[in-house]
Specification:
- This protein has six helices and ten strands, in the order E-E-E-H-E-E-E-H-H-H-E-H-E-E-E-H.
- It is an alpha/beta fold and 235 residues long.
- Strand 1 and strand 2 (19-29) form a beta hairpin.
- It is globular and about 45 Å long.
- Bound molecules: adenosine-5'-triphosphate.
Length: 235
């Protein structure tokens, strides 16, 4: 049983020129939480996810996942699965080869059965051995999804996870998110369509100008809460 938070980010600062993408931001997330991360375009959501994944180094502050510093400790990033809308798929490779590459990165030996199961789960088994070049956006998203969970990370960071998915694939993803939430894992999901996973969320966090301006347990109907949330969606 984890005694420390799954994620502990403290005092994160990241600037791009004069823009403060992260401005003294602190956040803790525990196992079993599904944090819906909302905010206007440019609020800093993707930068935060990238910092939590160890892909963006903050100018100041620290990120620990499962108690380990993702920017300082080799291997700490293995606890993170990051689904990004820049799908991070090698399109010269087939889906199977993409997943083998990912498995090798995470030192998963003998992952062939897991790869097969992952491709089956996202409905790509029929295209498993075709180059990903020419795949539709939704197919690339399915492949990215298979990759995100292949190494069974305790922390899942989902940046616009429903992008490009058809309604059936979106439903399947919702079911997977529900399963992840009840297992020993935590999820942060960025979306401009909160209705897609509102009832699964346990907590709602809103960012504005690199800061957290709202952090509450999720409760009630989105329709009722919407006016409160919408006031943060101003430039
Ligand atoms: P959106 O909802 O549009 O995806 P976001 O909340 O995810 O926005 P970020 O992508 O984190 O916002 O960007 C936060 C701010 O930092 C924006 O003003 C953006 O232009 C800026 N920014 C992010 N990455 C870079 C970069 N690599 N170079 C320059 N500016 C950047």
């Amino acid at each position: 049983m984890l005694t420390h938070p799954l994620v502990r980010a403290t005092g994160l600062v990241r600037r791009f020129g004069l823009i403060r993408a992260l401005d003294q931001l602190s956040l803790e997330v525990r196992v079993g939480e599904l944090v819906l991360l909302l905010g206007a375009n440019g609020a800093g959501k993707t930068t935060l996810l990238r910092a939590l994944a160890g892909l963006v180094r903050p100018l100041r502050g620290r990120v620990q996942v499962c108690g380990r510093d993702v920017h300082a400790e080799p291997g700490a990033r293995g606890a993170v699965g990051f689904l990004s809308h820049h799908a991070m798929v090698y399109d010269d490779l087939t889906p199977r080869e993409n997943l083998r590459f990912h498995a090798a990165l995470h030192r998963l030996d003998g992952a062939e059965r897991e790869i097969e199961a992952a491709l089956e789960l996202v409905g790509l088994i029929d295209r498993a051995d075709l180059p990903a070049r020419g795949f539709s956006r939704g197919m690339l998203q399915r492949l990215a999804l298979a990759r995100t969970d292949l190494h069974r990370p305790p922390l899942l960071l989902l940046d616009e996870p429903f992008t490009g998915l058809d309604p059936v694939a979106a439903d399947t993803l919702r079911q997977r998110i529900a399963t992840w939430r009840t297992a020993d894992r935590g999820i942060i999901a960025v979306t401009h369509d909160p209705a897609a996973i509102w009832t699964l969320a346990t907590r709602v966090v809103v960012m504005q100008h690199g800061r957290i301006v709202h952090d509450q347990p999720r409760s009630g109907d989105l329709m009722d809460v919407r006016p409160t949330l919408d006031r943060w969606f101003v430039a």
